[in-house]
Design a protein that fits this description.
Largest interface: A-B, 13 and 10 residues
Number of domains of chain A: 2
Radius of gyration of chain A: 24 Å
CATH class of the largest domain in chain A: Alpha Beta
Distance between the termini of chain B: 40 Å
Radius of gyration of chain B: 19 Å
Mean pLDDT of chain B: 91
Number of strands of chain B: 7
Low-confidence stretches of chain A: none
Oligomer: heterodimer
Strand order of the largest sheet of chain B: 1-2-5-4-3-7
Largest sheet of chain A: 9 strands, mixed
CATH architecture of the largest domain in chain A: 2-Layer Sandwich
Structural class of chain B: alpha+beta
Order of helices and strands of chain A: HHEEEEEEHEHEHHHEEEHHHH
Shape of chain B: globular
Structural class of chain A: alpha+beta
Number of strands of chain A: 11
Mean pLDDT of chain A: 91
Strand order of the largest sheet of chain A: 1-9-10-11-8-7-2-3-4
Low-confidence stretches of chain B: none
Distance between the termini of chain A: 11 Å
Number of helices of chain B: 8
Strand content of chain B: 15-25%
CATH topology of the largest domain in chain A: archaeoglobus fulgidus dsm 4304 fold
Number of domains of chain B: 1
Helix content of chain B: 25-40%
Strand content of chain A: 15-25%
């Protein structure tokens, strides 16, 4: 029997009532966050940041009040827009062959004179022990699968983005997009040798992007739809929460409020927030992990745009990222056209996954290798009564 | 290769418009290289360079390459359809144009045979528009007419009329060509003068 929807319905209904009961409280917290942002004092915040930096705690760099907004800049008439997205087929222990596949979708659109588009899907199979394992110096190793594969895919997306630049003419401004965060989330939970390997790869890519950005007008934007971040709300809490300031316990203040809730009230469609910077190490810049970001009212929602930290020094690059992100979200509509098309190229459907398994089994059989599989897998394929 | 042969080869390659993606004994479907690159209804095309097969364009369609993604309106506010394609160049990558041709003959030992081909064209065979001389030669004999009249296509009479209109234009006396064809059609459709007249009226230049 499949999911008992009648039984589930009651539980969903209870959940909805519970959320509804908490909604007034949530709205009050958002209102408090708005007031706090209007009273935000840069000098006081810098002072708190300084104390926390001495304790080794990293906080968001805020150089302009969060309430400051910037209108949509004009974008160049002739513009290249490119995006990369990826998906993967994870290692399946029920399969006779241990392997995984990463499929990278790319989309490149030239707007203006002689407009054109190029769409591409590049699948790569990883099947050898060498490229399915990360090895440390002390014979430690980490198989690439599950969440490690998620990060590996993210890095492959970044690599594809840096390769895509080679296809772009140097004399036309270009705006590059990634789906989701600029840097992969969750690296910190892995052993040091795995982290080192990932950071080395990211570092190499970011250096390439940095060098390229000095040769052409180019923005790199990681577009996060419906972001769940709370970096700015946390910054506000540093100034208004008794618990965080060490003078008492938190009375509720603005905990639980998301940055998107705040900027939905502070921005008008097309406007962006100031640029904020997130350093992973207080007082140091790290090309492979530091980011600049802003929030943008993209018409239907607040989105978060993350950029490499060096972008913060170039207003024309920030304008390009701002203008092209808004323009793309309008064209979508709602979500950037270029990311939609890259996603469509990358997507691996359930049917594709089944076809992939059949392809692997056929290839093994034609090479004289039997393809035993688990009884559980067989029972999923043949659903007898 | 002499220059005459070279010129002919170059001319033919210019007329290549797509490749066969579905083929049966009675019809074949071609996917165009260019969006909206299909020939007009009733055009004579050839497919398969090894075993050339004649087809008459009977149905054309442009739609999304991915059936689960349907086009959405871009307006209001855009001046014309050209500006829509200029502003959304990816549409050319996401849509495709195809056309179906009714098989009406083939070439065997350099002779035109106006019958169904013994085998359909191979998948991914190139499809090209026939040259004027090929069209004149093919349409000089009316054996193909019965194939179109008996086709299961809903608008096969209109397809025949379009073909005759194109073929008549290439002749010094188009009206005489239509009169001659009309006699053949009338003999194939006894007691159906209204249908015959309608075909000829639609074919008239």
């Amino acid at each position: 029997m499949s999911l008992d929807l009648t039984n589930t319905l009651q539980q969903v209904s209870d959940m909805a009532q519970s959320i509804s009961a908490r909604e007034n409280e949530r709205l009050k917290r958002i209102e408090t966050a708005i007031i706090a942002s209007k009273k935000f004092d840069l000098r006081s915040y810098e002072s708190v940041r300084g104390h926390l930096a001495e304790l080794g705690q990293s906080t968001t760099v805020i150089n302009d009040p969060p309430t400051k907004s910037f209108i949509t800049p004009n974008i160049p008439e002739n513009l290249m827009v490119a995006a990369v997205d990826g998906s993967h087929i994870d290692v399946n222990r029920h399969l006779a062959a241990e392997c995984f596949l990463i499929n990278i979708g790319t989309c490149l659109i030239k707007y203006g004179d002689d407009s054109y588009a190029e769409l591409q899907s590049i699948p790569t199979l990883y099947a050898s022990d060498e490229n399915m394992t990360i090895r440390g110096a002390d014979n430690r190793f980490q198989r690439i699968q599950g969440s490690v594969l998620g990060i590996k895919r993210h890095i492959e997306e970044l690599k594809s983005l840096s390769n895509l630049i080679k296809k772009l003419p140097k004399d036309i401004p270009c705006s590059l997009f990634l789906d989701g965060t600029l840097f992969p989330i969750g690296i910190s939970i892995f052993p040091q040798f795995v982290r080192d390997q990932f950071f080395d790869e990211i570092n190499e890519i970011m250096n390439l992007l940095f060098q390229e950005s000095s040769r052409r007008k180019m923005s790199v934007s990681a577009y996060i739809s419906y972001p769940g971040h709370n970096d700015i709300v946390q910054a506000l809490r540093l100034l208004i929460c008794d618990e965080i300031s060490g003078s008492g316990i938190c009375k509720g203040c603005i905990e639980g409020v998301k940055d998107r809730d705040l900027f939905y009230e502070l921005l008008e469609p097309g406007q962006r927030s100031p640029i904020f910077v997130k350093n992973t190490t207080p007082g140091h810049t790290n090309i492979s992990s530091d980011i600049a970001f802003f929030y943008l009212y993209a018409g239907n929602e607040i989105v978060r745009i993350e950029m490499p930290y060096w972008s913060v020094e170039h207003n024309d690059i920030i304008d390009l990222a701002h203008g092209s992100s808004f323009d793309q979200s309008i064209r979508g509509p709602g979500y950037p056209t270029v990311l939609i098309e890259a996603h469509e190229q990358a997507i691996v459907t359930a049917v594709d996954r089944e076809s992939f398994i059949e392809l692997v089994e056929l290839a093994l059989n034609s090479n004289g290798i039997t393809t035993p599989t688990s009884q559980k897998n067989i029972s999923k394929r043949i659903r007898n009564i | 290769m002499n220059s005459k042969k070279q010129n002919r080869k170059e001319k033919l390659s210019k007329e290549i418009i797509g490749e066969v993606i579905r083929a049966s004994s009675t019809e074949f479907e071609t996917q165009c290289y260019d969006l909206y690159g299909f020939p007009p209804l009733g055009s004579l095309v050839l497919s398969d360079d090894e075993n050339p097969i004649f087809g008459i364009v009977s149905h054309s369609v442009t739609e999304s390459l991915d059936p689960s993604r349907t086009p959405r309106p871009r307006g209001p506010g855009l001046a014309d359809v050209k500006s829509i394609y200029q502003e959304s160049p990816q549409l050319k990558n996401l849509l495709n144009s195809r056309f179906t041709s009714i098989t009406v003959g083939y070439i065997q030992s350099q002779t035109v045979v106006r019958k169904l081909s013994p085998v359909p064209p191979k998948i991914l065979s190139i499809t090209r528009i026939s040259t004027e001389s090929e069209l004149i030669e093919f349409s000089s004999n009316f054996d193909f007419v019965a194939r179109l009249l008996n086709s299961s296509f809903a608008s096969s009479d209109d397809v025949l009329a379009s073909f005759l209109s194109i073929a008549a234009r290439l002749r010094p006396e188009p009206d005489q060509y239509l009169i001659d064809t009309g006699k053949e059609i009338a003999s194939l459709l006894p007691g159906q003068m209204r249908r015959v007249n309608l075909i000829l009226r639609n074919a008239s230049i």
